[in-house]
Amino acid sequence: MKFNGKTLWITGASSGIGRAVAIEFSYKKCHLILSSRNKDALEEVRGICEHNGSSAEVIPLDLGNSESIVAAVKKAQAFNKTIDGLYHFGGISQRSYAIDTDIAVERKIFEVNFFGTIELSKMVLPIMIGNGGGQIGVTSSIVGKFGFPYRSSYAASKHALHGYFESLRAENVAHNILISMLIPGRVKTNISMNALDSQGKAYHKMDDGQNKGMSAEKAGRTIVNSLGKERKEILIGGSELLMVQIRRFLPRLFYYLSTKVQPL
Ligand SMILES: NC(=O)c1ccc[n+]([C@@H]2O[C@H](COP(=O)([O-])OP(=O)(O)OC[C@H]3O[C@@H](n4cnc5c(N)ncnc54)[C@H](OP(=O)(O)O)[C@@H]3O)[C@@H](O)[C@H]2O)c1
Question: For 219-242, what is each residue's pLDDT tens digit?
Fold first, then answer.
């Protein structure tokens, strides 16, 4: 996949990994669509992207609101009839035990992380097919590969993305739709600050693990480089990624470690 001159839509572009990916793409001189809820933060990213030589359009959207997604797709098509890449970074995490978590909070996590992501993808897919193909990048997590304490619904929403997009990939190979699952371990962003607690309030604390994670800028470079190589699964992070292999090849060790691990 060559990004130069292409129209690339990035959700979660206001902050963290999505922001870093948008800025990394902007060096490739493309047309960027920047989305999330915080318009002011998106405008700041737009300025950086334009300075780096790309054109950029801010289209705010709320992934938890279907009407907002439909309106955003109309605006995106007015900006440019073709969409060559759609990269999902919009998402919210969780910091609460399953037993304490209000079901409304669990539904909200799924609305944003799963239903918002698939709804936008389903609306963009026919545009890509009509255009001869395209690339969709979907941000899961290492907890999309295994369960983890304090993240039950978040992990479930990320597991659901794997099932959905693996199916979508198989259905659309003939339409030249490339799908990449992005699997970050620990990246130093505001994800834990913005995570929901058992009652749906922002957790407002920086996890120790997050704080020691890879920088968003490094994650952004790794992601854009790997998307360019059309990798189907892209793992991003440090030694924490070992847990993916332990879960796969040494499941009994994984079950033991998962009861000992520090979740924050
Ligand atoms: N950081 C990590 O260690 C890590 C690890 C694994 C997976 N991930 C995944 O990476 C992605 C990016 O997270 P991050 O680490 O960069 O965290 P972040 O800094 O909190 O960024 C999250 C992004 O999602 C957007 N967002 C949240 N709720 C939204 C909604 N309802 N509608 C539209 N956009 C929404 C936020 O923008 P607004 O507030 O402007 O809407 C923000 O741009 C997420 O999917 C996360 O699950 C991160």
Answer: 999 999 999 999 999 999 999 999
Residues with catalytic roles: 154
Q: Indicate which atom in ligand 1 lies nearest the CA of residue 111.
A: 31
Q: Which two tokens stand for residue 223?
A: 């992601």
The pTM for the full model equals 0.98
Both structure tokens of 1: 């996949």
* CATH class name, domain 7-260: alpha beta
How many whole angstroms from 54 Cα to the centroid of ligand 1?
A: 23
DSSP 115: I
Residues 158/141, Cβ–Cβ less than 8 Å = yes
Q: Spell out the residues 6+ positions from residue 96 whose beta carbon is closer than 8 angstroms to its own.
A: 105, 150, 196, 197, 198
Tokens for 22, please give them.
């948008």
* Distance between CA atoms of residues 69 and 125, nearest Å: 14
pLDDT at 80: 82
8 A C-beta contact, residue 200 and residue 92: no
Ligand 1 pocket, residue 60 CB under 6 Å: no
**How many degrees, rounded to 5, is the angle at CA 229 between CA 10 and CA 227?**
15
Domain locations along the chain: 7-260
Those residues whose C-beta lies under 8 Å from the C-beta of residue 80, and which sit 6 or more positions away, are 7, 31, 33
- The CA-to-CA distance between both ends of the chain, in Å, stands at 37
Per-residue pLDDT of 25-48, as tens digits, reads 999 999 999 999 999 999 999 999
Q: CA 151, CA 67: separation in Å to the nearest integer?
A: 28
